[in-house]
Amino acid sequence: MSRILAVANQKGGVGKTTTSINLAAGLSSAGKRVLLVDLDPQGNATMGSGIDKRESRATVYEVVLGECDIHSARIHCENGGFDLVPANQELAGAEVELVGLERRETRLKDALAAVDSEYDYILIDCPPALNLLTVNGLTAAHAVMIPMQCEYYALEGLSDLVQTIKKVRSHLNPSLEIEGLLRTMYDPRNTLSQQVSDQLQKHFGAKVYRTIIPRNVRLAEAPSHGIPAIHFDKQSKGALAYLSLADEILQQRSPTH
Ligand code: ATP
Ligand code: MG
After folding, report:
1. Does residue 228 contact residue 48 with C-beta atoms inside 8 Å?
2. Which of 23, 95, 121, 216 would disulfide-bridge 238, Cβ 3.0–4.6 Å?
3. Residue ranges of domains in the chain, CATH in brackets
């Protein structure tokens, strides 16, 4: 059975997609079988994995609407070593089209059940909104990974996400856990970052990953080449940080823990 993680935060630009791609690539290079699901109409995880979202092919849109089997929509990403269910702008319409359908919150969960035995990890890159797509991501997942920047409003936004997680837990997915909070784009010279980081640790304790992702330009450059940063520049600080995050996650699940 696979471990399904939703990478979510309704705040935009906090590093969800960068985390999804590099964690998928990091877990793959550790020998795990990984599926990355792009659940964002922006299609950034698709492009960053080296798949052109403008090419016509089946996407997660058809999968959630039940028009296409997940086996036909997934595609192997050579550059990352993982499989991807791509997304493009069309997915923006799914929000409206799903409303009238039965089991609208469990569409992704139902689809993933068909490939569950083929992967060790399934990562879901959620859009920057607490909408029906994100609810589908949270309903399909065992746990949520929350990337966040250590800035003043970060904690405020977190309480809305925690409320949504609680609602999903009580109505749709009782065993949904918070896997961890990931500090991204971290600049140790910034005292506010340090203060917010300290506060996070105080409130969430062991739920905060030990690994901190630094601000690193190579992480921002890699997507335009369609190559995960961990392969684009293996020695960069960003690459090393994401490799250490993959290790941390693997250790959490290893039988000795
Ligand atoms: P959205 O909410 O729009 O989906 P997101 O949360 O998925 O955004 P990303 O797309 O991963 O965030 O990152 C936002 C921008 O910041 C991107 O241009 C990305 O390349 C860049 N970026 C992400 N992480 C880092 C980092 N650690 N250092 C430098 N740049 C980063
Ligand atoms: Mg994104």
Report:
1. yes
2. 216
3. 3-249 (3.40.50.300)
